[in-house]
Amino acid sequence: MKKINVLILLLISSVSSAQEILTLGECYDLAEENYPLASQITLLEEKTARELEVIQKDYLPKIDVNAKASYQSDVTEIPIDFGGQSFESVDKDQYRATLDVEQLIFNGGKINSRSDLKELELQAQAQEVRVTLYQIKKRINKYYFSILQLGEQMDLLDSKRDVLSERVDELESQVKYGTALPASEDVLKAEILKVKQQQDELESQLHSALNSLSAYIAKPVDTSTVLELPQQRMFIHNEGSRPETELFKLKEEELDQNKKLLSKNLFPNIYGFAQGGYGKPGYNFLDNSFQDFYMVGVKLNWNVFDWGKVKEQKKSLDISKELIDAERETFNFNNNIELEEANRNIVKIQNMLVKDREIIALREGIVETANSHLNNGIITPSEYLTEFNNLYEAKINQQLHEIDLEMAKANYKVIKGSTEK
């Protein structure tokens, strides 16, 4: 006998260990990792890395190979006789091949500014993706808590069916001994069938919700998976951290970096250059033979007057910054309204739960009395069933409200951007 008990315990423990426990926080993380949009962040990082590499190549020397062959209708001649000496005219066919090298020496830090701007653009674009991913949390809340509510309803219907079955057995005994009419038990049997219908409908809804949650988190979720009901504390006065707030900040930093780059565009560019080549003629146009040649030097390129273009571009960026400020204010305004509504919803559900407990206590007393009256033939099964259904309706309402409360808290945290678990 002891061996059988031990075996049963081992079987129970193995079944319970096979059940996977899934938390709301884990669902958030899995959804953000596996949602198709999440791959954009990696792609943006790869794209920016290549663009930064291209920008940094501006530090490398620019090397050009040029070749030219030409024939011209006329050439410069020197029609002067220097004591019987004459100068040979340049041939009309001319040839030249050169290697030109240009190296940036100074550009006022424009390359580094462009790199910094590209980095900020990446951060802003990635944050836009995170803002979109953050919205998934509301959908996860919907499916996660729907599954919990459907499971609680099914459990309560199981309990209701068990109690009704016990009442049927009692009535069958009474019918057998002639203390109750045969039709009495049929009323309760019909109610049991109705409960089974309700369970079938709930089971269909449960599978639908499980499939939706599974699709979002890219992980199988079925009836064997245990979803943990979070017991969440409220942090009404704590500051939140919505991803939109960081996005506004990054957009402003991007505009500031744009202004810095515009200022640097006013700086001169200084290059070192070298040219080596071979051709006819070379740098000496009086020598009509093929010859090699070279030149080295430094050049400066400076747009000293841009007709106020940079100034106007900076004004445009300032306006863009004001637009971001307006977006931030609008977001905060709407977010505060959502928070107030969410908080009122929490208070409403808490008050409903207080009433639920009072109603259940009263209903349990009424059903206990009705059960005694039914057994003594004072009331009919239909009258008993009315009070019995009222009790289970109250219990279901309480369970739904308890889960509604945790869902309302979860939604409040999503709206606020709270990272507290």
UniProtKB/TrEMBL annotation:
Its main location: membrane. GO terms for cellular component: cell outer membrane; efflux pump complex. InterPro entries: OMP_efflux, TolC-like. GO terms for molecular function: efflux transmembrane transporter activity; porin activity. SUPFAM superfamilies: Outer membrane efflux proteins (OEP). It holds the Pfam family OEP. Residues 117-205 form a coiled coil. It is found in: Cell outer membrane. Keywords: Cell outer membrane, Coiled coil, Membrane, Signal, Transmembrane, Transmembrane beta strand, Transport. Residues 1-18 form the signal peptide. Belongs to the outer membrane factor (OMF) (TC 1.B.17) family. This is Outer membrane protein TolC.
